[in-house]
Specification:
Layout lengths: L4 H20 L1 H65 L3 H7 L6 H15 L2 E7 L25 E12 L1 H12 L5 E10 L10 H4 L3 E12 L2
Antiparallel strand pairs: 1-2, 2-4, 3-4
Helix pairs in contact: 4-5
Length: about 230
């Protein structure tokens, strides 16, 4: 439907003519100026203040995040201080831990400890046989070892030792207790005792074996691999 421009123009002209007397009044002019000024100020003020408001909200959120991060860092610092204090407390005994679980097999020190313990207990060592392992330093065959038992850590390895001693029962018992109290971690996995007759013993140990026993021990020694 075509628009009649002349009739529309006449209608708007009459509308403006009806508003003209109102706009000519001083009070109407003042109100109109105030309203338009307020709208202009509000519009330009909004576009001027909006970036500032966004910046304030961003900074407020950043302050909240930084406060949380600062709290977490304080907790970590407190934990590190506690760990440092605990480390200083246990530092004197750390060498004992290395002696109990060395980083390599080191069979020779174990053999020496067993011989010294036998001498202190008053028994005679007749045989010490370590299993196939490195006597000193790193075990070259550790990469070929069988999978560790579920009760043994993946970094914890073992090897076996067989020890035979001869002497009076009380001395042999003292030797067994000494093995259990050794600083190096050694467990007894098997034990065989048999009486020793005087005529069965050699000359050097005749007095020691009289009325004594022969003890064969199967031992397991632990160490850690890096």
């Amino acid at each position: 439907m075509a628009t009649n421009y002349k009739s529309e123009l006449g209608r708007y002209r009459r509308y403006y003519q009806s508003l003209e007397p109102i706009l000519k009044k001083p009070s109407s002019r003042r109100y109109t100026s105030v309203i338009f000024s307020f709208l202009a100020v509000s519009l330009f003020g909004w576009y001027a203040i909006r970036p500032t408001i966004q910046t304030i909200l961003y900074l407020k959120r950043e302050i909240t995040d930084n406060t949380l991060i600062s709290k977490q860092m304080e907790d970590k610092i407190s934990a590190l201080i506690e760990a440092q204090a605990y480390y200083q407390e246990v530092e004197p005994v750390l060498p004992f831990v290395d002696q109990a679980l060395p980083p390599n097999p080191d069979a020779i020190p174990v053999v020496i400890q067993l011989r010294n313990l036998a001498s202190a207990s008053g028994v005679l060592v007749t045989a010490i046989q370590p299993a196939s392992t490195a006597l000193l330093g790193q075990d070259p065959a550790k990469s070929q070892k069988e999978p560790a038992s579920p009760l043994v850590s993946s970094k914890q390895q073992t090897y076996d030792l067989t020890v035979s001693v001869q002497g009076p029962f009380e001395n042999v018992r003292s030797y067994i207790n000494g093995i259990l109290d050794m600083r190096r971690v050694v467990s007894i996995t098997g034990m065989v005792m048999s009486p020793v007759r005087g005529e069965q013993s050699g000359s050097p140990s005749a007095s020691l074996s009289a009325g004594g026993i022969l003890l064969a021990l199967q031992l397991k020694t632990f160490y850690l691999i890096e």
